């Protein structure tokens, strides 16, 4: 690496002899020869004592060497285990797409023929840089984490719901991204850039994938640094050829320049310290583009008649967030056939002597360097205007222009809506939106030049006037509307006001995601509301597993920044926190505070303290005043999400509310020993010490892992609960109450420590939150009405009494799912809630019913009370809301799938058939409303899951016999692919196949079998020959994902093809040991890719315990539940 570097003369920490290559090797003792240096030894007289001492020292050295060898043995052996792995596996990276990234190639610019070259005699000409350093040279800079030694408690089942990442532009993940990891090195604040003058030549990028550039960086030195150097970020492809530093007429001598590839830095050593003055750093460089995704450049190449010509290229620079007040002046030399776009409008264009065009753009306002962008291609435009006559232009390829009509009509309206809502004018003179092909992210919010992937901005081509296509079109337009709204919101949140540090990403993405739902509510009321709560359910699940990052956390490497752009952990969680802030201060005060926040911090870099300074000081919840910043700080810094457990003591009107970190495995009873290893508080739905009778009963259930079903399970609570408290309650009740009332914390007696809610010290990450807790009870139809209590839960737990709450009345916490925390109840309260759901579910608010479905699955489904959860889900047979029903659909599908192959499965399906029938009616009824029908499409797999449920329940709508016959005869089917394969599979499983099975078998023998036929062949039962043929074809794929697909294709017991599974595993057994290792050796392969995976043995133990528990409950508590005379009371 030093071989091609310029000589260092000062500031180096290496030996002097390593700095100058043309010198002869340094002697050990000046000019004295090696023999002369030790010549005194030969003149000494022989001394046996001295020789003995020397021998003894040698032996000591040998013993020490052996000891060191033993110490290093483990390290060496581990290294040899990985010797056959490629170097990329030894050096862990995170591959993701370029959009804002911390190390800057913000010097990307080009040379124009009209720009004079740097010919000053003080210019330092640098030798060409060596080839890019491979990760191996500096892998030790970023230590590799050891493979995790996981325990059962750290094994989590993946969630099946798929995140819709089309609108989240920061789905900044790509298999081609981040070829190396780099530490984030902050630059000195004593020298800051104030202006970039960039001259870029892109005339050679089509054939050589290369651009050249001249850039003049105006620097302001504040004179408080003693370092004689300038350090700046530069991408790995930057090759600087000439450099000069000047201040006015004075040229500063440059000693040398070092390219620190591992840090993506250039370090310039100067002869003198910088004074308090303005300097100009002139650079001339070249850079390769489109060869590595790590350079911030995205290219699309399309073949023409003679050559492969570039149709479009775009680049975005990278930055250090704090450097937000920088202006850019860009001039580009390019082919006259290309249209070039940048952040600002074109100021002038001319043609040079070689026939190439030179385009000069207006100076940008002060902005962060990661927002600088350039796009070039053979574009055509569709221009619209905002209310203030600002041109908003969609740029596409000619053949795609017609597909941009919706975006062109929607974008100006959304622009006006946000500008009117925020009351801060957009500061640029134009806004361009480019539909680029093969763009590595959904979109990038460059100021004034938003670049989209064409699939996220343009309509689909295959659209007709049928009802099905109308629904598809509506759904696709909603996706386009979301991403346009998100990117327009970034023009204020992220561009006009930028976060100061990467840890504050939520200030950009949280607000942009929040505005998506706020701005689109009027246009898409059902879609926005349901999608928010659907994403909230996904957030709860993902933040309850092993990976539950805090919203604000320290980020020290590029890979950590790229990983931070997560659809759920950043976009959804940020949106949820912003919405929580809005609800705590009121919509009016929130709107006024946000406007103040943007106006006060325009063109600046901010932290969350700037946000809190613009919002009301106190949160509006309960009777006690709590500072908003201290409340929200817990939600920003804490990992995961909280859960609240409500335990009631029914004979004394006592209530205890406890909070802790939500963890899924705490409620999986099979993970704990049966002989005393069970944590009583893990599975009890009340606190034992607080309610010993009820608690001990549930603990016994947990330890025994099953609870006998009692026909009175869902009866009203015994009258004993009321014997001594009814009179006391009547004395305390007011004589007249009506409607719904909110009672503050002053109305209840709270027993807690004196210092509770009085500590004002700065919050640090912990597992305690400041939770705006509330609960309700009572009936709207009763004379007393509904009562709502509100107070802050800041300690681990609080206890109080509420004499107005009857022991026979259910308590419902977090009404309307107002705030983002889970709620668990004691056993008796869960029973009362489920009974109320069946008796009159409208007594419970809609959003609370949605939360009960989500929380019921989390707390009950794999506890000692699975029948209670099944009973809760059965209320869905009378649910009118499509949103709650769709969440229930997902829960029912996961429940049935979890018992696939179990003897209790037919009884479970039969019990839930009324729920599936109600879902079938929902699907039919929603077809009359395009937006309601679009709810089914928010999750791309939801319809497939429903088709499986419908056929598993053997509903008549599963298959239409004439359509099935038509497909087998002519290969045509009127329904979509998923409905077709599900219905055909059901038909084959129920009817045995017959001649259809023979046709499938004959078709499979062809050289290229239809994948659908291969899938259908696994549905035919009692046909060993067909099963064996299908199994051999599947195994021949040598693809474990294909194996998983065919094993998970159906849900019902009648589709569970034991014959095929037996043939499949038999065929896998015939594979060579090498093939089996390649397919299933997760210890060797998966652990290198997923360090959190851990040992395969722990996963097998997890599955073994899960299956054993399912066997026990299938023959125990669930068998008794389903055999009861009236299990569905």
Automatic annotation (TrEMBL):
Q: Which GO terms describe its molecular function?
A: metalloaminopeptidase activity; peptide binding; zinc ion binding
Q: Which UniProt keywords apply?
A: Hydrolase, Membrane, Metal-binding, Metalloprotease, Protease, Transmembrane, Transmembrane helix, Zinc
Can you tell me which residues bind Zn(2+)? Answer: 486, 490, 509
Question: Which Gene3D superfamilies does the UniProt entry name for this protein?
Answer: 1.25.50.20, Neutral Protease Domain 2 (1.10.390.10), tricorn interacting facor f3 domain (2.60.40.1730)
Q: Where is the composition biased (Low complexity)?
A: 96-126
Q: How is the cofactor bound?
A: Binds 1 zinc ion per subunit.
Q: Which domain of life is it from?
A: Eukaryota
Q: Where is this site: Transition state stabilizer?
A: 571
Residues covered by region (Disordered): 92-130, 725-766
Recorded family membership = Belongs to the peptidase M1 family.
**What is the name of this protein?**
Peptidase
Q: Which organism is it from?
A: Pristionchus fissidentatus
């Amino acid at each position: 690496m030093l071989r091609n570097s310029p000589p260092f003369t000062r500031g180096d920490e290496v030996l002097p002899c390593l700095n100058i290559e043309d010198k002869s090797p340094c002697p050990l003792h000046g000019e004295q020869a090696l023999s002369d240096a030790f010549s005194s030894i030969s003149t000494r007289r022989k001394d046996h004592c001295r020789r003995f001492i020397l021998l003894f020292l040698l032996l000591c050295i040998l013993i020490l060497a052996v000891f060191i060898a033993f110490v290093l043995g483990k390290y060496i052996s581990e290294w040899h285990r990985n010797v056959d792995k490629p170097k990329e596996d030894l050096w862990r990276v995170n591959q993701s797409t370029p959009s804002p990234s911390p190390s800057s190639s913000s010097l990307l610019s080009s040379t124009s023929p009209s720009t004079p070259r740097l010919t000053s005699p003080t210019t330092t000409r640098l030798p060409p840089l060596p080839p890019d350093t491979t990760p191996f040279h500096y892998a030790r800079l970023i230590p590799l984490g050891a493979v995790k030694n996981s325990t059962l408690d750290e094994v989590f089942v993946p969630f099946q719901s798929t995140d819709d990442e089309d609108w989240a532009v920061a789905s900044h993940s790509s298999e081609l991204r981040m070829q190396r990891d780099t530490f984030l090195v902050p630059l000195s604040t004593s020298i800051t850039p104030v202006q970039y003058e960039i001259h870029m030549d892109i005339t050679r990028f089509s054939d050589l994938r290369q651009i050249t550039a001249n850039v003049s960086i105006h620097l302001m030195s504040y004179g408080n640094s003693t370092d004689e150097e300038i350090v700046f970020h530069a991408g790995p492809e930057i090759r600087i050829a000439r450099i000069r530093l000047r201040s006015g007429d004075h040229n500063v001598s440059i000693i040398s320049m070092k390219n620190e590839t591992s840090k993506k830095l250039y370090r310039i050593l100067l002869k003198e310290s910088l004074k308090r003055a303005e300097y100009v750093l002139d650079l001339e460089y070249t850079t390769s583009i489109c060869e590595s995704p790590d350079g911030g450049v995205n290219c699309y190449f399309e073949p023409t008649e003679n050559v492969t010509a570039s149709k479009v290229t775009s680049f975005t620079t990278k930055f250090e967030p704090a450097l937000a007040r920088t202006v850019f002046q860009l001039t580009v030399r390019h082919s006259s056939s290309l249209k070039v776009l940048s952040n600002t409008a074109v100021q002038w264009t001319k043609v040079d002597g070689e026939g190439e065009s030179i385009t000069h753009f207006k100076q940008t306002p002060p902005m962060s360097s990661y927002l600088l962008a350039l796009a070039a291609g053979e574009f055509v435009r569709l221009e619209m205007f905002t209310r203030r006559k600002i041109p908003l232009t969609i740029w596409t390829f000619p053949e795609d222009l017609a597909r941009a009509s919706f975006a062109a009509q929607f974008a100006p309206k959304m622009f006006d809506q946000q500008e009117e809502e925020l009351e801060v004018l957009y500061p640029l003179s134009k806004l361009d939106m480019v539909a680029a092909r093969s763009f590595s992210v959904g979109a990038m919010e460059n100021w004034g030049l938003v670049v989209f992937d064409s699939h996220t901005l343009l309509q689909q081509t295959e659209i007709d006037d049928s009802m099905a296509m109308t629904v598809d079109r509506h759904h696709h337009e909603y996706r386009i509307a979301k991403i346009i709204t998100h990117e327009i919101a970034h023009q204020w949140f992220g561009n006009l006001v930028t976060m100061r540090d990467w840890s504050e990403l939520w200030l950009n993405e949280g607000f942009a995601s929040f505005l998506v739902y706020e701005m689109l509510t009027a246009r898409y009321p059902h879609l926005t509301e349901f999608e928010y709560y659907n994403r909230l359910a996904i957030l709860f699940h993902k933040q309850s597993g092993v990976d539950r990052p805090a919203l604000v956390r320290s980020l020290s490497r590029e890979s950590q920044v790229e990983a931070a752009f997560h659809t759920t952990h950043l976009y959804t969680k940020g949106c949820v926190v912003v919405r929580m802030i809005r609800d705590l201060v009121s919509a009016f005060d929130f709107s006024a505070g946000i406007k103040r926040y943007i106006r006060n911090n325009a063109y600046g870099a901010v932290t969350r303290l700037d946000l809190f300074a613009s919002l009301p000081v106190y949160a509006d919840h309960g009777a006690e005043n709590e500072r908003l910043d201290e409340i929200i700080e817990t939600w920003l810094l804490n990992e995961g999400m909280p859960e609240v457990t409500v335990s009631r003591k029914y004979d004394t009107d006592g209530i205890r509310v406890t909070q802790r970190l939500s963890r899924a495995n705490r409620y999986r009873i099979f993970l704990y020993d049966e002989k005393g290893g069970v944590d009583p508080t893990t599975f009890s739905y009340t606190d034992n010490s607080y309610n010993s009778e009820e608690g001990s009963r549930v603990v016994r259930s947990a330890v025994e892992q099953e609870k006998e079903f009692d026909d009175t399970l869902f009866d009203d609570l015994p009258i004993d609960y009321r014997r001594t408290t009814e009179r006391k309650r009547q004395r305390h009740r007011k004589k007249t109450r009506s409607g719904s009332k909110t009672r503050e914390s002053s109305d209840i007696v709270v027993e807690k420590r004196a210092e509770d809610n009085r500590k004002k010290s700065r919050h640090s990450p912990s597992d305690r939150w400041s939770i705006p807790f509330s609960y309700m009870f009572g009936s709207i139809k009763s004379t007393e009405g509904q009562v709502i209590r509100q107070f802050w839960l800041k300690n681990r737990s609080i206890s109080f009494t509420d004499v107005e709450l009857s022991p026979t009345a259910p308590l419902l916490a977090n009404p309307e799912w107002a705030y983002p925390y889970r709620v668990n109840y004691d056993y008796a309260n869960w029973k009362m809630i489920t009974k109320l759901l069946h008796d009159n579910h409208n007594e419970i608010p809609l959003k609370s019913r949605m939360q009960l479905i989500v929380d019921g699955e989390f707390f009950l489904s794999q506890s000692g009370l699975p029948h209670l959860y099944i009973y809760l889900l059965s209320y869905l047979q009378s649910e009118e809301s499509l949103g709650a029903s769709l969440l229930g659909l997902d829960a029912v599908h996961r429940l049935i799938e979890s018992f696939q192959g179990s003897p209790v499965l037919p009884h479970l399906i039969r019990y839930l058939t009324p729920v599936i029938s109600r879902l079938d009616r929902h699907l039919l009824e929603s077809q009359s409303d395009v937006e309601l029908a679009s709810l089914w499409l928010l999750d791309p797999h939801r319809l497939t899951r429903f088709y499986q449920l419908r056929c598993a329940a053997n509903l008549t709508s599963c298959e239409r016999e004439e359509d099935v016959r038509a497909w087998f005869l002519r290969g045509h089917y009127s329904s979509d692919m998923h409905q077709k394969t599900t219905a055909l599979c059901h038909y084959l499983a129920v009817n045995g196949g017959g001649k259809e099975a023979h046709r499938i078998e004959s078709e499979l023998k062809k050289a290229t079998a239809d994948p659908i036929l291969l899938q259908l062949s696994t549905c035919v039962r009692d046909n060993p020959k067909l099963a064996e043929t299908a199994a051999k074809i599947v195994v021949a794929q040598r693809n474990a994902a294909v194996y998983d697909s065919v094993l998970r294709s159906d849900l019902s017991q009648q589709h569970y093809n034991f014959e095929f599974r037996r043939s499949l595993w038999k065929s896998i057994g015939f594979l060579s040991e090498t093939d089996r290792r390649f397919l299933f050796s997760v210890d060797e392969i998966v652990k290198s890719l997923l360090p959190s995976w851990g040992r395969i043995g722990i996963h097998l133990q997890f599955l073994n315990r899960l299956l054993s528990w399912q066997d026990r409950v299938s023959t125990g508590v669930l068998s008794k539940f389903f055999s009861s005379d009236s299990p569905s009371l």
